[in-house]
Amino acid sequence: MKHNYLSFIILILFSIPVTIFAQSPITGVIKRTDGAPVPHATVKIRGTNISVSADDNGVFSINSKQELPFYLQVSSVGYKPQDFQVFKLQDTPLELILVENALLDQIVVTSRRRSEVLQDVPIAITVIGGQAAENAGAFNVNRLKELVPSVQLYASNARNTTLNIRGLGSTFGLTNDGIDPGVGFYVDGVYHARPAATSTDFLDIEQIEVIRGPQGTLFGKNTTAGAFNITTIKPTQTPTAKVELGFGNYNFLQAKTSVSGGLAKNLAAKLSISGTQRDGTIWNTREERKYSGQNNLGFKSQLYYTPSDKLQVLLSGDVSIQHPAGYPLVIAGVATTERSAYRQYAKIVADLGYQQPKVDPFSRTINTNTPWRHNQSIGGISLNVDYKIGNGTLTSTTAWRFWNWDPTNDRDFSELSALTKSQGNSRHDQYSQEVRYAGNITEKLSGVVGVFVLGQNLQGLNQTEEVGKDQWRFVQTANTGSQALYSTPGLLDGFGIKTNSTIKSLSAAVFAQVDWEFLNHLHILPGLRYTYDKKDVDYDRQTYGGLQTSDAALLALKAAVYANQQFTTSTDNNNLSGNITLSYRPTDKVNAYGTFSTAYKPVGVNVGGLPTTSNGQADLSVAVVKPEYVEHYELGVKTKPIKGLLVNVTAFNTDIKDYQTNVQSPQLGVNRGYLANAEKVKVKGLEVDGSYQLERFLTLNAAVAYLDGKYVKFTNAPLPLEETGHTEVINGVSTQVAFKDASGGRLPGISKWNVSGGAEFSTPGNLATKNGRYFIAGDASYRSGYSSNPTPSRVLNVEGYSLLNARIGFKSEKFSIFAWSRNITNKNYYEQLQAAAGNSGLYAGVLGDPRTYGATLRYSF
């Protein structure tokens, strides 16, 4: 039964109270900083619903009998809203000055835990305003990859999410919970440990900073590849509210509302609600239902206490609930492996009495016989305290977050009853505490110092994998001898495993970085970090079902498919890393910098099932995965050649020792894959991004990233799908091997060329009685082809693709309406390809969205 989360939200949208006050006249004129009038600006008396619009010359007259002093709120499209305090009534008109919205070269970021102008920070950063992201249709992090070329995000569902920057950060493919992400994900200073956080809808986002490169001396958690630093809009004392409704094809419906205001002196509150629904885009012919839809509901509440100019306290709580029609993979092809003809996919399905599956992925149809489900709930509570001490701010961020994951997958991707069920049910709790001080020590010296502690408890709860009546033929290697017994009726029917596992981890760190202008315009920025990590694992897997028998031969055949496995392990590690940056800023138009840094990603553990040794026991030699050690070099220059134009260039080289990667094992019991280390990896690249802003009329942006990622040395890589069954002559004997030397091969998930660009043109105009601007905008992106397999494969490669999005509409200070379309050309493309478990030759794909279109209406009170 489909949950309808939006009906009550829509009722909320138009239930904002209105209050009327008495009136007396006040006159004035609204001007820009250069003295020119601002026509049609809105002037409102704060705390009331009394407002007027200025005329063509910026002149206004408003009536009030408010007790002095009171505030006039002035706003206009393209300018920063501003409050002006009126202390006394006067005969001469008031002259009120509005400042234009931050030009591109005035964007403020907090990536170094203090407010700074973006172009002054010697770090490669891309900033996207929350409203701009939503206008472009990026209502979660997944869609930001079309706006920021260096970001790669691939997901077959919320859990199996790979979030990388410059091709590094997380293992590509099926997620193993025992490895830490290398890209930090922060919302209002709180670290989110689970990659599923990227699937939740944006709610009241102020801006998103995408920080590229290691940043371990600034952020709480290790960030070997970069970080997302997301800030939300804080509550206001002034009563405000906004509503948004969006409609589109596939029955898309999105509703958002946010209400903010003062509860008492110095105490403000805000409540935000978001709901998104959309029909699926993939049709299951067997179940006669749609999949790959959306059904999301999100809440966020905040209390903001500001008793003085020195103290700010923000208490936040949020929860997101997602009950989508699951995200199935579609059959993308069948490869010929190096196994015998008897073990090729076509022969197997023919022997089972099925027809070869139809390979037509972009018909967007499947016929799987197990329902797909990807339900999750994610949320938490945080307390952030900022206290100004001297020339800096002491900050404490305390947080608890949770994640519940309830999936069902049909892992044979077909109508066969082979690997019929895969359920990785999980429960995650995290507790974090960060305390840091950031500010100016002297006129020439500033910095940040802090401590960070993160505790996690990740449980696998009765995680289930189950096979059906057809699985015997996939595991049978011949129809003679003991292998012939695999056809024994009912032998593997309903045979499976239930796994309960626990990872308890602790990460603690001390970090510091300073910025010292030791010569005029020349800055040196050293940073240091000490990290300690500990992980304890308890793994217990038990078999169930199948034919109940005491026959030793049959039991041996069952054990070759699934077997009990238990192990415990504990590991810890510590690391000292750091960086040093030189930055030269001869003028306000140039910032050139060079950085050398070392970074570290913690020791990993395997909880996806381990390969077995010759005696059938878990191979504990691969239970623990060595940490990654990173050496990173970067050169960059940020420039402002002419007014309104920014051009930034960055070149980098990253070397990783003991790169943590995901290995797909041919053993069915570890079909989720296990973790391993590639001896050495190198990623190098060049990024160029530019933007141009012509006052309020035209905004242009473009970016290109060249990335080259290779295994320098990976001697024990898994075989690609098409080489499964490969044999080599070893000591004069033809021997089947399971691994190969992939040294020199390309890393998965990395497109060599990534390009994006966009433009927005606007002009003044009126819509009915509303004064504002008409606009037309578009953005395009291109990614060249990339490998979709841990080991380079001739088969599992995603072809390059381009996407085009556009929108057109009208926006005023309080009202906007626009039509939009994403993937206008209806491009068919894959986001990911992966082999079916057992490596019989079948592989499936994650499809990108087809063309979508709709309209959005926003209104502020």
| CATH homologous superfamily classification of the largest domain | TonB-dependent receptor, beta-barrel domain
| Computed CA radius of gyration, to the nearest angstrom | 29 Å
Helix run count? 5
How many domains?
3
CATH class of the largest domain: Mainly Beta
Membrane topology: Multi-pass membrane protein
Keywords: Cell outer membrane, Ion transport, Iron, Iron transport, Membrane, Receptor, Signal, TonB box, Transmembrane, Transmembrane beta strand, Transport
Family: Belongs to the TonB-dependent receptor family.
Protein name: TonB-dependent receptor
Characterization of this structure:
This protein has 861 residues and is mainly β. The protein has three domains: 26-97, Immunoglobulin-like, CATH 2.60.40; 108-232, TonB-dependent receptor, plug domain (Ferric Hydroxamate Uptake Protein, Chain A, domain 1), CATH 2.170.130; 240-860, Maltoporin, Chain A (Beta Barrel). It is 4% helix and 54% strand. It is built from five helices and 53 strands. The strands form twelve sheets. The protein has a 22-stranded antiparallel β-barrel. The chain has a five-stranded mixed β-sheet with strand order 10-15-16-13-14. A four-stranded antiparallel β-sheet has the order 3-2-5-6, with no helix packed on it. A hairpin with a 6-residue loop joins strand 5 (70-75) and strand 6 (82-86). 48% of the residues are buried.
